[in-house]
């Protein structure tokens, strides 16, 4: 096995511009996944009539299918749907000029929202009922009780699993090359294809994902420490 | 000041409260006694809407509210006039002792922060926790936590404080410090309803004693009447079991 170190280094430099794309995708997806996942969890924890069944259905659909299939589906269906809407409304838009990274963000956002909803759900349920009751008795309303008492405690419980879910999602964004997104994987594949030097390029992104994931883990650890400040024991 | 009328509550067809009525005057200290499972906790929870009664009403300062179908506004109004002390303290785990007390003042009653902190510090001083303002519940003993719970209750200056067995989760050596605080409040004229198994508290600090069994009030009277001349056989049996450590005067 011959490793071309200088090629590996050159490609590494050329892959670097893909890092903001990878991180941007992950961040964009989180911006969808966190609020949506939280909403789904709230709906299910509070057993809101009918909607909770729909939420459960959505979660099992998304969780029960491979990301790759979700990518195929969204990437082929969404532009067509968008196109029909554009034609029907006479908008001055081209459905096929929408940057694919946006579709990727949607797929990973929806996908991660289901994992997060499960995480938030069990975290919310882990906060003892007495916390909410005490909040009510001191005069807080339901919204205030959630925001000030229940959610901070639930987040402290959820943080480690949120970290895992976020890291999984970051790694999954490597599938975005299937939608022609030029993230680090997309770049690596393109560069490697030129001289058939796959191994070097893949080693580059192997290390990059590793470093990115370690950074994410570290960030979550810092956040978790702050969330858990109240659990210090005497 | 408060009249509670005919409270009924069932859990899955099991009738736990079979029509409880109670009148509480200002400065009253009402002790509710009764065997386990008689519905004492459920009754207190119904007054504060932690549990929805099937039937019954409460007249609070002349304002009548249906306990089975009160509006959010009515519930909020009654909760602002009452405070609750839980058996297992239920301090906000993510808040310090001081923040536990200020929460109801700042958020629910819109008291400015500086003033709320002053009130909270006074309340914590009163329960002997002037050294523990910034401790989290996980850093406090059970007795200290319950004293914070009591400070949190009286700091909002409620018209009545409801206590649900405030000492029964405590180690015996910690009960005294909590009862001491409660007796102090009673002496100052705080209106209190106290579910308890502490006969000494009921005898010495209560102005009125209510004995509940099987979801009904069996007997009620002044503390003196109740402990010296119980009328009902059921009450005598109960007292015999609980007071055999004492020189009781039946
Ligand atoms: N949420 C609930 N669901 C079903 N049954 C309940 C519920 N809460 C209370 N009960 C039942 O109601 C009855 C009265 O309970 P409650 O807690 O009010 O009694 P208590 O007088 O406070 O007893 P203790 O002295 O043991 O605290 C019990 O038989 C209990 O099992
Ligand atoms: Mg009880």
Please summarize what this structure is:
The complex is a heterodimer of chains A (234) and B (250). Chain A is an all-alpha fold and 234 residues long.
What does this structure look like?
The complex is a heterodimer of chains A (234) and B (250). Chain A has helices at 5-15, 18-45, 51-63, 67-89, 100-126, 129-137, 142-172, 184-195, 198-227. Chain A has 234 residues and is mainly α. Chain A has a single domain, classed as MetI-like (MetI-like fold, Orthogonal Bundle). By secondary structure, chain B is of the alpha/beta class. A six-stranded mixed sheet of chain B has the order 6-7-8-3-9-10, sandwiched between helices. Chain B has a four-stranded antiparallel sheet with strand order 2-1-4-5, with helices on one face. In chain B, helix 5 runs parallel beside helix 6. Chain A binds chain B through residues 128, 130-131, 133-141, 144, 148-149, 152-153, 156, 230-234, and chain B through 48-50, 72, 76, 79-80, 82-84, 86, 88, 90-96, 103-104, 107-109, 135-140, 152, 156. Bound molecules: adenosine-5'-triphosphate and magnesium ion. Residues 40-41, 164-165 of chain B line the site of magnesium ion.
Blueprint (SSEs and pairs):
The complex is a heterodimer of chains A (234) and B (250).
Chain A: H1 5-15, H2 18-45, H3 51-63, H4 67-89, H5 100-126, H6 129-137, H7 142-172, H8 184-195, H9 198-227
Chain B: E1 2-11, E2 14-24, E3 29-33, H1 40-47, E4 55-60, E5 63-66, H2 72-81, E6 82-85, H3 97-108, H4 113-126, H5 142-155, E7 160-164, H6 172-187, E8 192-195, H7 199-205, E9 208-213, E10 216-222, H8 223-228, H9 233-243
Parallel strand pairs in B: 3-8, 3-9, 6-7, 7-8
Antiparallel strand pairs in B: 1-2, 1-4, 4-5, 9-10
Magnesium ion binds at residues 40-41, 164-165 of chain B.
* Beta-strand content estimate of chain A: under 5%
CATH topology-level name of chain A: MetI-like fold
Largest sheet of chain B: 6 strands, mixed
Number of helices of chain B: 9
What radius of gyration of chain B results from the CA coordinates? 18 Å
Helix/strand-derived category of chain A reads mainly alpha
CATH hierarchy class name of chain A: Mainly Alpha
User: What's the total count of β strands of chain B?
Assistant: 10
- The coarse overall form of chain B would be globular
Number of domains of chain A: 1
Helix content of chain A: over 70%
Largest sheet of chain A: none
Q: What structural class is derived from the secondary structure elements of chain B? A: alpha/beta
Give the low-pLDDT segments of chain B.
none
- The secondary-structure element order of chain B is EEEHEEHEHHHEHEHEEHH
Q: What series of H and E elements makes up the topology of chain A?
A: HHHHHHHHH
CATH superfamily grouping of chain A: MetI-like
Q: How much is the average pLDDT of chain B? A: 92
Q: Count the strands of chain A?
A: 0
What topology, given as strand order, has the largest sheet of chain B?
A: 6-7-8-3-9-10
- Which quaternary structure do these chains form? heterodimer
